[in-house]
Amino acid sequence: MEMKDKIEQVKARFQEEMQSICGTEELEKIRVAYLGKKGLITDLMKNLKDLNADAKREAGQQINQLKQQVSEFIAAKSSELEAALAQARLQQDTRYDISLPAKPVTGTLHPITIVQRELEDIFRSMGFAVEDFKEVVTEYDNFEAVNIPKYHPARDMQDTYYLDNGQVLKTHTSAAQNTILRKYGAPCRAIFPGRCFRNEAIDASHENTFFQMEGIMVGEDISISNLIYFMKTMLSEVFQKDITVRLRPGFFPFVEPGFELDIQCHVCGGTGCPTCKQGGWIELCPCGMIHPNVLTMAGIDSEKYTGFAFGLGLTRLAMMKFGIRDIRVFNSGNLKSLEQFTIQ
Ligand code: PHE
Question: Which cofactor is recorded for it (predicted)?
């Protein structure tokens, strides 16, 4: 028989067989019978070697075409059978009535979660990775790795909770800097929100448990103007208006130079009101250029790379955004208070 006829024969047979298929197992058998190692189509391929060049080319094309048709047909049939199966399963299942209207979702997000997610979205859109970090950390990560050596007076800036196993509750999100810098290397940009703990007396504006969001950006020409740009863009998104910022010198061992970033009061626009205690400016976010020691300790060449870091107080930001005056609301578990802060 001519090759062309053989191909036609296989095709006709396939079409006929496909008509009576009613299960996935059967379909699989047919797949193997045609496309498998010893399948009919594979067999046709093997016959090609006996043909001359021209005939080989022509038959080769025809076989390939058939092969493609058969694969497509089987794939389509397979989805069809699976859909039918799923539908049948649903109909047999009497536990659910899928035609009932859905109940509205109840519950609300915590105000800090709302602000955190909003910030994550903003930073993600600017190319920052979002990272999570432990709450129990080594002293090394919390202090040494961010340039606060043992017995350095700067350790007293943050009243630390020490655990029996020698580790600490992280006092700031900067404790993750070393790990994140090592993970990404240079260049990188990442934010890492997290819960922090400090041994503080609690009152309306102090908590021993609060949230921060750290951000870092490292690259070959990163400067203070990059820092200002990202902070301004992010804050303008959060407050939904143009925000003016200013930098004042601030000291933190892991940045050099270090700053306190203030925003012009978003309530009065700088003329003075109770929110800004009449000063026109609100202290918002410590930040600075990452100290070369911190880069070096994370294995990054501090001659080649520079970067900025900031430690945004998420709890503070949530208080400002929602006009919450008492920080104790956040950890109170008082649903009546917390449920007010829904966003759609
Ligand atoms: N980790 C500092 C703090 O909690 C804040 C900070 C972060 C300052 C990054 C500068 C750069 O007090």
Answer: Mg(2+)
